Amino acid sequence: MNLNQKRTPFAEVLNHLDRKYSNFDGTGYHEPYYDYIEGAPDESATGTGMQGTKVFQADPYQIIVENPDKVAHKAIIFGKNKFSSKPNFGSDPEIKITMGQPGVEYVELLESSASAFVTQFMRIESDNKLQITKFITVNERNPNGNSNQRSLNMQQFKSAYQNLENMLDAPINEKITGSTYWEIEIEPLTRVFYTIFPLYKVDISEPLSGNEPIKTFGPARVNTAGLILPQQTLLPRR
Predict the structure, then answer these.
(1) Are 123 and 195 in contact (CB under 8 A)?
(2) C-alpha neighbours within 13 Å on the C-beta side of residue 122
(3) High-pLDDT (> 90) share of the chain, %
(4) CA contacts within 13 A on the Cβ side of 42
(5) pLDDT class for 13, splitting at 50, 70, 90?
(6) Given phi > 0 = left and psi -120 to 50 = alpha, else beta, which region is 23?
C-alpha cells in the first residue's frame, strides 16, 4: 500500500456530490428555497399572500445496485406493498441494494414510496456500459387489482450528444406508488447508480404542519459535462 497517497476527506466527497446532484445528501426538502409558478392555483389561503405554487429545490434519491456474482441477476426497485417483507426485498439473493445518501437505508425509501411521487429525470451510471441501456420493466397495480406491465427502453435516450459511455441521462416521467416496482437485469460483476429526481412528492401528513400535501420540485440540476450540445452554424450575410 502506498502510504504517501493523498486521501480525499469524506466531507469533501459529499460536497462534490452535493454540487453535482443538487441536494444529494437529502437536505433542501424543507428548506425555504423555492420559487413560484405564475398561473398556478392561488396559495394566498396558506398565508403566503402570493399567487402560484411553491417550487422547491431538486431533491434526488440515489439507489446503488450491485451484483458481485459472475452471472446476471434480477433486481427489484421499489414495490413497498409487495416486497417490503420479502427476503432481499424481492431481488435475487446475490443482489445488494443500498442508498447513496449517507445514513439512509434502502428500506426507508421503500417506506416513503407508500406516498406517491412522480419522477422527472434519471441519471444512470456504471462502469459496465452494457448496464446503462438495460430495459427497465415497470409493474403497476391499481386499488381495483388491475395490473399493468410495460418496458422502458433506455436505449432510446442514448443520443450523439451524450458522449460518456458510462452515463445515461433520461428525462422520464414515472409515477411511483407503494404498488409500483421496477425489474432490472443486472450484469455480472456490475455496480450501477440510479439517481432519480422527483417532480412531485405527496405527503398526507404535511397539512398537519400547515403545509401543502404536494411538494413541487424544480428542474434537475446536474453536471452536464457528459452532454455535448450541437454547435450553432451561422450563415454568412448576403
Answers:
(1) yes
(2) 21
(3) 47
(4) 3
(5) low
(6) left
Specify the residue for cell string 422547491. Answer: 56
For residues 29 and 112, the answer to whether their CB atoms sit within 8 Å is: no
Three-state secondary-structure class, residue 222: coil
**What's the grid cell of residue 65?**
445496485
Rounded to whole angstroms, the Cα distance separating 148 from 61 reads: 25
| C-alpha cell at position 189 | 460483476
Could you write out the DSSP letters of every residue in 89-157? Answer: GGS-TT-EEEESSTT--HHHHHHHTTS-EEEEEEEEEES-HHHHT--EEEEEE-TTS-EEEEEE-GGGG
pLDDT at 227: 43
Confidence label for 207 from pLDDT (cuts 50, 70 and 90): confident
Banded pLDDT at 59 (limits 50, 70, 90): confident
